[in-house]
Amino acid sequence: AQKITQTQPGMFVQEKEAVTLDCTYDTSDPSYGLFWYKQPSSGEMIFLIYQGSYDQQNATEGRYSLNFQKARKSANLVISASQLGDSAMYFCAMRGGYNFGNEKLTFGTGTRLTIIP
Amino acid sequence: DGGITQSPKYLFRKEGQNVTLSCEQNLNHDAMYWYRQDPGQGLRLIYYSQIVNDFQKGDIAEGYSVSREKKESFPLTVTSAQKNPTAFYLCASSIDLASGSGTGELFFGEGSRLTVL
What we know:
The structure holds 2 protein chains of 2 kinds. By secondary structure, chain A is mainly β.
């Protein structure tokens, strides 16, 4: 079974500072994928970034980067130069390897990020 | 534009009534999912379907039913047997991982908020 743990229910960060959202995971699959989603107050789920378990480099997408530490089973999201529009819920999620039937994602409980002007 | 359409956005139900939430996608994805979101609990998988005319129970399937008669459509029925149906419901779709392409990210609809009176 797969499990995602997000230990920060809420965070407050000053605008323009960098922020790290923690995520640890547990799985027995040798191959897996890790995702981060953003959920604004409107409720939509916005895909931010993906990291494959065999990827050698940490994933980056604009101001988002994923600090992937495989041995520690950690996949923290780093947002650089935070903006007011970054205020939202953030979810870490994972799936199994590239096999039929592994498409479903397991989600963590989320972190509510609030950016302070 | 390609995407996932959920309806209705808001729904009120009296206790003892069944309700059906609609989910339609035009992304040509094989896999579709229903998740439930409660405050502070993240997203929990209700049902998922990888191909037409087949679906699997997720972690919290009791009190729910689904059908997958067409690739584009995956309606969810919340039955009177669901003890606490008030929640935010999210439908999603993804490619078939066995194709070996893409990350397997889920594409989400905007959600349906169900309130039981």
